[in-house]
Amino acid sequence: MRYAIFSDIHSNLEAFSAVLDALKQECIERYFCIGDIVGYATNPSECILMVKDLAPVIVAGNHDYGACGKLDLEYFVPRAKEALQWTQGILVKEEFDFLCRLPLVHSEENFVLAHGTLDAPQEFYYLNHFEEADRSFAVLEKQVCFVGHTHRPGVFVERDGEIFHKALGVLELEAHKRYIVNVGSVGQPRDGDPRACFVVYDADAKTIEVKRVEYNFSLTQKKILKSGLPESLALRLAQGK
Ligand SMILES: [Fe+2]
User: Fold this and answer.
1) How far, in Å, is the centroid of ligand 1 from the Cα of 235?
2) Are 36 and 48 in contact, with CB atoms under 8 Å apart?
3) pTM (whole model) above 0.90
4) What pLDDT is attached to residue 55?
5) 150 CA distance to ligand 1 centroid (A)?
6) Hey, what domains does the chain have and what are their CATH numbers?
């Protein structure tokens, strides 16, 4: 079984389209989305529709809950809040309902998904440091936990209580280790690489591979500027931060 696992599309139609094109070559059988379908860019409805077409498993991101009113917009920094208020003016009732119904956690036989951290998924904490990884490993009952939220791909590895972090290239899963894999962001990477990011998990080969794909971010930028959203939301797409 080959799984495509991605996160943080953030209404970026151009990035998500490029990822879906790339996935056509990957013989994917199931799709998993780790939240933040909406927010920041200007095509929330299109992105929701395209995600639904994949018949994926989806867990909620903070922007999904913010857009549908399940999370107070005061939680967000000003430019994120502004984009969510703009998004609320675009979405229709079915889309609000869809976002509100998304669960916080999903479990499969060998892995689990959560947007921020596994120990407190409703808080949408960033899983950046060893202490946060430690708390998520403490409640992880599967071998792998996939997360998003930071928009930066990488992996925490745990073996016999010791945790280390490394960049995500091709990860070969080993039976005596556990992993928290951050799949990066489709629509707003923040690791200095502007290319859209996603992961392919081959359950038979026991490998997890990060993939990057170029997309036409200048079109996304134009649409953000034309919509009157903060200029910084456009500029950051070119910088990958
Ligand atoms: Fe996000």
Assistant:
1) 17
2) no
3) yes
4) 84
5) 7
6) 2-239 (3.60.21.10)
pLDDT averaged over every residue in the chain: 97
Q: What is the tens place of the pLDDT at every residue in 136-195?
A: 999 999 999 999 999 999 999 999 999 999 999 999 999 999 999 999 999 999 999 999
How far does residue 171's CA lie from ligand 1's centre (Å)? 23
| 80 Cα: distance to centroid of ligand 1 (angstroms) | 10
Rounded to the nearest angstrom, the distance between the alpha carbon of 63 and the centre of ligand 1 is 7
Distance 61 CA to ligand 1 centre (A): 7
Predicted local distance difference test score (pLDDT) of residue 143: 98
Integer Cα distance of 31 and 171 in angstroms: 19
160 to 18, 46, 77, 163: CA distances (angstroms): 40, 45, 38, 8
- CA separation for the pair 220, 227 (Å, rounded): 11
